[in-house]
Amino acid sequence: MPIAFVAANNDEAQAALADLRRRYSEAPLDQARVIVALGGDGFMLRTLHRHLPLNRPVYGMKIGTVGFLMNQFHPEGLSERIERAQPTVLKPLVMQAVGESGATTSALAFNEVSLLRQTKQVAHIRVSLNGAVKIDELMCDGILVSTSAGSTAYNLSAHGPILPLGADVLAMTPISPFRPRRWRGAILRAGTEVKLEILDPYKRPVSATADSNEVRDVMEVTIRESRDQTVTLLFDPEHNLEDRILNEQFAI
Fold first, then answer.
1. Which entry of 41, 141, 211, 243 is annotated as an active-site residue?
2. 143 with 175: CB under 8 angstroms?
3. What's the pTM value of the predicted model, to 2 decimals?
4. Mean pLDDT across the stretch 158-168?
5. Minimal CA–CA distance to 221: which of 142, 162, 148?
6. For the domain with range 93-225, which CATH number is right: 3.40.50.720, 2.60.200.30, 2.40.50.140, 2.60.40.10?
7. Which architecture characterizes domain 3-90+230-248 according to CATH?
8. Is 217 annotated as catalytic?
9. Is the Cα dihedral 60, 116, 53, 129 positive or negative?
């Protein structure tokens, strides 16, 4: 099986990379059937972004502190593990952020798009869904929109809901909301277009981040699920992503 290996830039991941290259023949990335990523979730996200145009499934092995998107690291029997791995198809979010100059920056997010205040001043944000205003003025530290796969990450830390994989929904979660006090977020259909307008952006500047791609001083941000781009992750059957997300709801 043609396999390409990529690894995080730390001693443990690089040592694992060298070991796997001794055990298995390696193909160039553009000729590989599967990409094997060695690291943590942050490295997995970077791998998905960097190699998205290749349209290759990615099998991750955890060598890091957080590995929710990864399988356990075992160098033995890798080809057999990949052959029986279960595919999970993820649709990223598309962020379009308009800056002070009027220029638009587009980026993809497999976990979430988050807006955060840049200064001590609380952010004031107008929230619209499919062209209809739902909150005239949300006063908060920020707000995020999360995919199902990303719902156990930043979204969960901000007290957002865990979303079942394949449910075709997104989570919209405020970060430290001040007004309206009782609003704690919403679950949206995956096809919803979210528009977030920054009110008083010069006094209360806000940044927008799609996974790790940050845009400073945004004026408005539009978020929607991608209609044509997907990535495929491979998971060991006994440790698949759907079960992990389900089990997170019962973690104590």
1. 41
2. yes
3. 0.91
4. 93
5. 142
6. 2.60.200.30
7. 3-Layer(aba) Sandwich (3.40)
8. no
9. positive
